[in-house]
Structures are given as structure tokens and as C-alpha cells.
Amino acid sequence: MTREISSERFRDRFDRFNEIGATDRGGVNRPSLSDANRRARDKLVEWFEEAGLTVTVDEVGNIFGRREGKDDDLTPVLVGSHVDSQYNGGRYDGVIGVLGALEGIETLNDIGVETERPIEAVSWSNEEGVRFQPDMLGSGVFAGTFETEFAYDLEDKEGKTFGEELKRIGYRGDAPCEPRDLHSYFELHVEQGPTLEDAGLSVGVVEGVYGFIWFDAAFTGSADHAGPTPMHLRHDALMATSDVVEAVRRIAGTEGEDLVGTVGSLDVSPNSINVIPERVDFTVDFRSYDDETVDRAADSVRTEIDHAAAREGVEGEYEQIMRIDSQSFDGDCVETVAAAADALDAEHTRLVSGAGHDASYLNGVCPTAMVFVPSVSGVSHTEDEFTEWEDAVTGANVLFNAVLEKASEPADWDGAGATNA
Ligand code: HGY
Ligand code: MN
Ligand code: MN
Description:
There is one protein chain. With 421 residues, the protein is of the alpha/beta class. It has 2 domains: 7-209 and 326-407, 3-Layer(aba) Sandwich (Aminopeptidase); 211-324, Alpha-Beta Plaits, CATH 3.30.70. 34% of the residues lie in helices and 20% in strands. It is built from 12 helices and 14 strands. It has helices at 7-17, 35-50, 95-111, 137-142, 148-153, 162-168, 195-199, 237-254, 291-312, 331-343, 358-362, 389-407, and strands at 54-57, 63-67, 77-82, 119-124, 184-190, 203-209, 211-220, 260-262, 266-269, 279-288, 315-324, 327-328, 348-353, 368-373. The strands form 2 sheets. Strands 1, 2, 3, 4, 5, 6, 12, 13 and 14 form a 9-stranded mixed β-sheet that branches. Strands 7, 8, 9, 10 and 11 form a 5-stranded antiparallel β-sheet that branches. Helix 8 packs antiparallel against helix 9. The longest helix is centred in the C-terminal third of the chain and has 22 residues, at 291-312. It is elongated and about 80 Å long. The termini are close together. The structure holds (2S)-amino(hydroxy)ethanoic acid and manganese (II) ion (2 copies). (2S)-amino(hydroxy)ethanoic acid binds next to loops.
């Protein structure tokens, strides 16, 4: 028997939540550990507590809301996403997954269902990685990939550390952030790509996530006057950078069928119209579902940086700041999502995510799967990000019924359909 959430309450919460850090163009600006992010966290804790959840904040600021089950010794089903955003990002990225998790729990409260297993809603810290790199930091520490001290020492462009900012906003919790026994993890997220919309479908059953690599890179040349300095005497950091930017596009176009490459951030100094650029700091992001493709692209771009530096007579440097392998989700959890979509008559397809998600790290801790809903025009990480509310509700219902199925599995579950709720 399928259960359905309250679309009205979900919508009301979604709109009220996105008033926090709202931008004039209909997006949100709630970067990690900013004041807006603190207000969003405060609102979430308030709603978790109103829903009767036991709230725990861990040492890197991950927020958990636990709903007890009949047998609290059973491992919990974890469900959630993140509420930090891009600078001037979208209203749906992450939020739809955290509020979708809460809405499912509220619905269980409404219908008075006590599940076999505890259910925990979660909001992971620093998923976006825009202010503090790497991204998916809170879930990465939870999965044991990063140490807590590594996270605390990360600095933003103003030299503020993650640890200081976390304490400043009051979310440096006491609970240890480390792997623990979980039954399974589910995450609802907007697709952030065109597949579902192109296919006219409302639900994506996500089978895995691309692997990716991030570099911080820089060229240091010689500043000089843009007028009297002959071209052959220049050591222009931006000219070397432009060779590498062109190379990233070429590598992505030639070294892998699904390979994508991006130079997303670039700072020029002294950044003056009539001064030859002395230094350029830039980033490189390569992704593919094939890990060897990612590694090949990384090798190629390192070679391109060395060659550009030699050609221009500048100093080149690069540092790998993020590397995560591609992930294939747990077959049983994926089938549970597909079965929930079928039971709800939600037309769906299976796909792999080009965007990174906290589920990538949870996949190393417990059986994990994701539910996607369409992004209009496939757009995301901008203020124009949009998902039809009907699709958001369908996705939240699929998530809810998949979680309910798993939370109904008793200790000695034999694999047959478990939901008796
Ligand atoms: O980079 C990503 O894919 C995610 O938004 N952190
Ligand atoms: Mn996200
Ligand atoms: Mn994102």
C-alpha cells in the first residue's frame, strides 16, 4: 500500500525555507557557514524538533533528526541531502531532499505509523564546496574519507577557516562525525541535467554517480606595461591560462565519451586593463562515469599546464583538491526506489548522475540509492533552477515509500516485501 505526503505542507515549508537568503532573481544565496546558512540550519532544527525528532549536530555541523522505531536497536534508515547553496544558486538543489525527508516523517506522524526501524533525517554540511573545497565535506568526514581536523583547517578566499566559521554560527557540535551502522541511505535531488525533461518523465531511479577530480592551478609570470613591452618579451600568466582553458575543452571533447571538463573559477592579478597579468589562479573540474577516463584527463591537463608554462616562460603549479571515484548504488535499494515509483504509477527511467552528491560518500558506508526529479531545461547551479511542483511531490512520494519500505524491514528480514505500515 502506498502512502502520500502532504503537498501543501511540503510546498509551504519549501517556500518559507527559501525566503532565507533569497535573491532578487528568484534564487538563493546561502553559501556554507554564512549567516544565511545559519538561519537555514536554525529553521531546520526548529522544524525537526516540532516533528518530535531528536536532533543531533556533529562536529562538522551535520544535522540529524531521529524518529524512533519499534526496535531502536535496529540500524536506522537515513534520508536527506544538504541546505548550503551555490553563490546565487537554485532553490531546489539539496533543499528538496532535506525537506522531502522531513515531509515523509511528518506524514508518518500524521498517520500514526511506527516503523520497525528508526528513521533519521539529515542535512550534510558543505555539500557545494563553493566557499570551502572540497565539496561533500560533511558526508566525506562522516564516511571516514576526511579527518575532522582537515575540515576545520580549510580556508575560504578571505582566510577564514571552516572550524572558526562553524563555531561562529553555533554548529560545531559535540557528536563525533564518523561512520556508524546504518541500514540504508536515500536521497531525493533535482537531476540538474536534461534527461528526465527530454524523456517527459517525472522520476529518475539513480543507479550511480560520476567520479570527478578538482584542481587548484595557477600561473605566475611578470607584470609589465601593456604598451611598451614587445610581445616576445612578455611572460603573460593569462596567455598561458588561456592555452589550458582551450585544452580542457579539447580534452573533454576527445578523451572520453561522457567526459566533461570545466574551468569554473579564474582570478587575474593585478587585473588592470593596461598591465600584463602577473598571476592567474584557476580551477579545473573533470568528470566521467569511468574512473580511468577521469585519471587520463587529469594527466593530460597536468601536461598541458607544464607545456603552457614552458612556452610562456611562466611558473605553473597545480594541486589536486578533490578526487572521488564513480559510484554504483546498491541494487536492492535501487529496486526499492523503482518499485516505489511503479506503485505510484510514476513513469521513470534509470540514469547516472553527472553531479556529485552526498550519496556518493554514503554509498561507502551503507546500501544507498537516489531519486531524481526533472530540472526544467536541465538548468541548475543558477537562480533559474526550477522543478514543477507536481514533479517535486511525485519524487518526495517515491522517496517516502522507499524509505517506509526499508524502515519496515525487521531484523530477520528475508527479502520479501516488508511494508506492513
Ligand atoms: O559539484 C557537484 O557536483 C556538487 O554540486 N557539489
Ligand atoms: Mn546538491
Ligand atoms: Mn549543487
